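Handover notes (outgoing to incoming on-call)

Open items:
1. ATP phosphoribosyltransferase: sequence verified, structure written out, both below. Nothing else pending on this one.
2. Nothing else urgent.
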Amino acid sequence: MSNTNIRIAVQKSGRLSDDSLKLFKECGIKFESGGSKLRSISSNFPIEFLFLRDDDIPGYVEDGVADLGVIGLNVLEENRKEVEIVKELGFSKCRLSLAIPRNEVYTDLSYFEGKNIATSYPNLTNNFLKSKGITAHTHEISGSVEIAPSIGLAEGICDIVSTGGTLLSNGLKEVAEVFKSQAVLISNNSLTAEKKSILDKLTFRIDSVQRGQN
Ligand code: PRP
Ligand code: ZN
Ligand code: MG
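ATP phosphoribosyltransferase structure tokens:
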């Protein structure tokens, strides 16, 4: 018996974290979470959890600092890291959408031609618009994107929509979907045979949890 642990990076706090922790607990994996401790080793499965900012997770997995990660497909696609997608996890479903002030008249995507769009996802937004033949300027901001039109920073936004509550509270309406997202399990491209076999055990457990939910 060796004492290798597989290392997994999960979001410290935010949209992905509760459901990620819930999944691993449903897999029968015991570990401490919550509080300010940023690392935790399971007492009954060869896994170590790292609690990190979500944006950093794909890079840590690419570099091999973590072997695995749980991340939104939106973050992964925006950053284009060299990692493998092991599994769709079916939670944290959301979409990246274009939105404009509610009282504006919207016809089609040509609305955005030559306009300023505030977003935390410039790559996904630009690729989408380009594929539709639209030339617009994306202005990158890292959060509170929905405030941009009302303060004159941009005419439209492209941001994550889940319930739609944030758009509504900020006088915006969703006009086009750019990308559909959910949480995915990712892995480093060159896991050792030993770590691969731990990953197999983990995905086996995830599969049975998911079967139980259907
Ligand atoms: C996300 C996203 C939207 C909001 C959408 O923000 O950027 O603002 O949630 O959710 P809703 O449709 O259910 O209202 P988050 O709370 O993660 O903050 P951030 O944008 O500052 O990261
Ligand atoms: Zn700009
Ligand atoms: Mg965020």
